[in-house]
Amino acid sequence: MTKGGGQTDRLVLDQPVTFFIGENGSGKSTLMEAIAVAGGFNPEGGSRNFSFTTRASHSNLHESLRLTRSVRRAGDGFFLRAESYFNLATNIEDLDSQPFSAGPPIIDSYGGKSLHEQPPGNSPC
């Protein structure tokens, strides 16, 4: 449903996959980032457990969103943005190199091999 002036008052995502298509600068990435942040994800990417910040550059659009979920809520999630893939891969390696790690290496959840060394499209993200 669209209101005048190009504003949207409701966006229903009821399919397993949704494509956002538009010109460069039309706000696709900003909208995806805002939905992710409103859903509790790090604006730079990752799961809800990632809280690193390399540069706070995200918009405050998430503050204007109200997410409504169905009763069937996903138990886990991941926000992967192309701009932050490198930073995320590096952060996983940095966390795994810390001597105080109490659990298994994080990289084990990603195939046991550095994301920097995996070819595009083969990463389990």
Low-pLDDT residue intervals, each spanning 5 or more residues: none
**What share of the residues lie within helices?**
10-25%
Query: What is the oligomeric state here?
Result: single chain
Mean pLDDT: 78
Largest sheet: none
Rg over alpha carbons: 17 Å
The tally of strands reads 0
Shape, principal axes of CA atoms: globular
Integer count of domains:
1
What share of the residues does DSSP label as strand, in percent? under 5%
User: What is the CA–CA distance across the termini?
Assistant: 32 Å
Give me the secondary-structure category: mainly alpha
- Helices, by number, come to 2
Q: Give the topology string: H per helix, E per strand.
A: HH
Helix and strand topology:
Elements: H1 28-38, H2 85-97
In brief, what are we looking at here?
The chain is an all-alpha fold and 125 residues long. The protein has helices at residues 28-38, 85-97.
If you had to describe this structure to a student in words, what would you say it looks like?
This protein is mainly alpha-helical and 125 residues long. It has one domain. 19% of the residues lie in helices and 0% in strands. It contains 2 helices and no strands. The longest helix is centred in the C-terminal third of the chain and has 13 residues, at 85-97. It starts with 27 loop residues before the first helix and ends in a 28-residue tail after the last helix. The relative contact order is 0.12. The mean pLDDT is 78.
State the main characteristics:
19% helix
